[in-house]
UniProtKB/TrEMBL annotation:
Protein name listed in UniProt: Leucine-rich repeat and fibronectin type-III domain-containing protein 3
Ranges of residues in domain Ig-like: 321-408
Membrane topology per record: Single-pass type I membrane protein
Disordered as annotated region, ranges: 406-462, 598-656
Native organism: Canis lupus dingo (dingo)
Domain Fibronectin type-III: 457-553
Function statement: Cell adhesion molecule that mediates homophilic cell-cell adhesion in a Ca(2+)-independent manner. Promotes neurite outgrowth in hippocampal neurons.
Localization per record: Cell membrane; Cell projection, Dendrite; Postsynaptic cell membrane; Presynaptic cell membrane
Length: 656
């Protein structure tokens, strides 16, 4: 055998031994290379050269496609950074993740299912899901999200299931669902704090099948909010604050059932229990729908409160037409001033108030007018063309009611009322703004005598009986002015520039101004408001002006302060006690002097008697001691002294 054959046989034992001639020296190594090629391991194109390690406490399924990373209940505080970016399923539920950052899910372009349920997520960074363009389902329920902005769901162009229930959502941005509006099929917003929703954005979810809005704080639903949701199969609005549900074209096209049990495939399931429904004529359409028994009940009106919704007859769903209860009286304002027209109405349901101008146009919010929901129309700046009859229209589902409010716009008030002393133009000799100071002083000295008496009062308007807070204004009859509608009084005090207006009936010739400030000077003008026969417009003509001053208020005698009263009472009481003690001491001293320096209860000891004057019958014997005299209280300072001679017997004994 040639020398090359053993080498080939030892290198390729399985190769057949064929006789061959010795190869050329350059070709001697070629058979060896050909035999070693089948022994090299073949690399699979489906497996990467290096695989990411599985995060700690997680289970990873990387042996078969699709790849899954399962980390439920692993006690994670954040999204693991060592995730396999090829994963198609990522489950991070029941952990303690507080935020989703932009880099946490970057480059996971093949992810189809992401579950972040029941964590403590408060913040989702803008663009956190921007790379998840293949994502089909996103579960963010059971977290602590309070709002959802426009950039937080950006990039989810293939999302079909979005679960946001059991959060603390109070605001949902109008553009939050823009990227997934055409593909979203399931949207769950239940158990949140939503009071308002971007209804226009929800109306663009043309492929949505299930819409969960239950257990929120929704108080109203606009009419036609669901008209474009043609594929909607279930709408849940349970346990909100809805008092009525407006009819929608979607509801009229599909048969409705109150519960999904036994419903046909094409039926729309509508759940609205747990709402404080106001059962009036606006809910008759809902009462007429085919449904299975459910637990809805009426909350109002009082006659139907607490009754089962489906047990109330259609004839009991009634409304009350509106009634205007209050409107503004005829109002007159000068041009350029604001004016407020008010109209109040009651009815069931609550009527909506609108205003129509004297020209027949509907008045709404503009640069010159503002219409408020409570029925008030405010004209910010009035013009002469605004005068006329404004019509208040109150309407609800049962009818409408109208009321007229007259507005008169007069000429602007005289500008000199605030700082001048009279409505009349300056007379000759009176200084004005155009008179030089020297000329003004010369004219003032020339008319000093006229200035002493003061300007003559206007004969048309007189102010009499003015006190500290009130004044009586009188003016003559204005017969030359035809068609007078009313009189207008304008006045202001010297302390401010605010004009006060009073509207007086046309048949009045006097008016009592009250609530004036004491000790102030007032400028007052009376104007007649009449209808100009030539033009047919409302005009004003001044009747006259006057100036008067209110009397200063008398200062009332104030009651003494409480500390003063308390001190006075203490001093008086002490004085009485001291006087009583002094009187008592004085009485004791007097009684002591009367009794001769002895206490009043103890008798004075009798003085010894040297001689006693007595009368006897002549018997001899010892002289008995006189009885002790009974003490007697002396009635006066009298001393009686008795002079007695020594007693001698009448018969002296004789000797034997």
């Amino acid at each position: 055998m040639p020398s090359g054959t053993p080498l080939l046989a030892s290198a390729c034992p399985n190769a057949p031994l064929l006789p061959c001639r010795p190869p050329p020296p350059a070709m001697a190594v070629l058979p060896l290379l050909l035999c070693l090629l089948p022994l090299a391991p073949a690399s699979s194109p489906s497996q990467p050269a290096t695989a990411s390690p599985c995060p700690r406490r997680c289970r990873c399924q990387t042996q078969s496609l699709p790849l899954s990373v399962l980390c439920p209940g692993a006690g994670l505080l954040f999204v693991p950074p060592s995730l396999d970016r090829r994963a198609a399923e990522l489950r991070l539920a029941d952990n303690f993740i507080a935020a989703v950052r932009r880099r946490d899910l970057a480059n996971m372009t093949g992810l189809l299912h992401l579950s972040l349920s029941r964590n403590t997520i408060r913040h989702v960074a803008a663009g956190a899901f921007a790379d998840l363009r293949a994502l089909r389902a996103l579960h963010l329920d059971g977290n602590r999200l309070t709002s959802l902005g426009e950039g937080q769901l950006r990039g989810l162009v293939n999302l079909r299931h979005l679960i946001l229930s059991n959060n603390q959502l109070a605001a949902l941005a109008a553009g939050a669902l823009d990227d997934c509006a055409e593909t979203l099929e399931d949207l769950d917003l239940s158990y949140n704090n939503l009071e308002q929703l971007p209804w226009e954005a929800l109306g663009r979810l043309g492929n949505v099948n299930t819409l969960g809005l239950d257990h929120n704080l929704l108080a109203s639903v606009p009419a036609g909010a669901f008209s474009r949701l043609h594929k909607l199969a279930r709408l849940d609005m349970t346990s909100n604050r809805l008092t009525t549900i407006p009819p929608d074209p979607l509801f009229s096209r599909l048969p409705l059932l109150a519960r999904p049990r036994g419903s046909p495939a094409s039926a729309l399931v509508l759940a609205f229990g747990g709402n404080p429904l106001h059962c009036n004529c606006e809910l008759v359409w809902l009462r007429r729908l085919a449904r299975e028994d459910d637990l809805e009940a009426c909350a109002s009106p009082p006659a139907l409160g607490g009754r089962y919704f489906w047990a109330v007859g259609e004839e009991e769903f009634v409304c009350e037409p509106p009634v205007v209860t209050h409107r503004s009286p005829p109002l007159a304002v000068p041009a350029g001033r604001p004016a407020a027209l008010r109209c109040r109405a009651v009815g069931d349901p609550e009527p909506r108030v609108r205003w129509v101008s004297p020209q027949g146009r509907l008045v709404g919010n503009s640069s010159r007018a503002r219409a408020f929901p409570n029925g008030t129309l405010e004209l910010l700046v009035t013009e002469p063309g605004d005068g006329g009859i404004f019509t208040c229209i109150a309407a609800n589902a049962a009818g409408e009611a109208t009321a007229a409010v007259e507005l008169t716009v007069g000429p602007p008030p005289p500008p000199q009322l605030a700082n001048s002393t009279s409505c009349d133009p300056p007379r000759d000799g009176d200084p004005d703004a155009l008179t030089p100071p020297s000329a003004a002083s010369a004219s003032a000295s020339a008319s000093a005598k006229a200035a002493d008496t003061g300007p003559p009062p206007d004969r048309g308007v007189q102010v009499t009986e003015h006190g500290a807070t009130a004044a009586l204004v009188q003016w003559p009859d204005q017969r030359p002015i035809p068609g007078i509608r009313m009189y207008q009084i304008q006045y202001n005090s010297s302390a401010d520039d605010i004009l006060v207006y009073r509207m007086i009936p046309a048949d009045s010739r006097s008016f009592l101004l009250s609530d004036l400030a004491s000790g102030r000077t007032y400028d007052l003008c009376v104007l007649a408001v009449y209808e100009d026969g030539a033009t047919g417009l409302t005009a004003t003509r001044p009747v006259g002006c006057a100036r008067f001053s209110t009397e200063p208020a008398l200062r009332p005698c104030g009651a003494p302060h409480a500390p003063f009263l308390g001190g006075t009472m203490i001093i008086a009481l002490g004085g009485v006690i001291v006087a009583s003690v002094l009187v008592f001491i004085f009485v004791l001293l007097m009684r002591y002097k009367v009794h001769g320096g002895q206490p009043p209860g103890k008798a004075k000891a009798p003085a010894p008697v040297s001689s006693v004057c007595s009368q006897t019958n002549g018997a001899l014997g010892p002289t008995p001691a006189p009885p002790a005299p009974e003490p007697a209280a002396p009635r006066a300072h009298t001393v009686v002294q008795l002079d007695c001679e020594p007693w001698r017997p009448s018969h002296e004994p004789t000797g034997p």
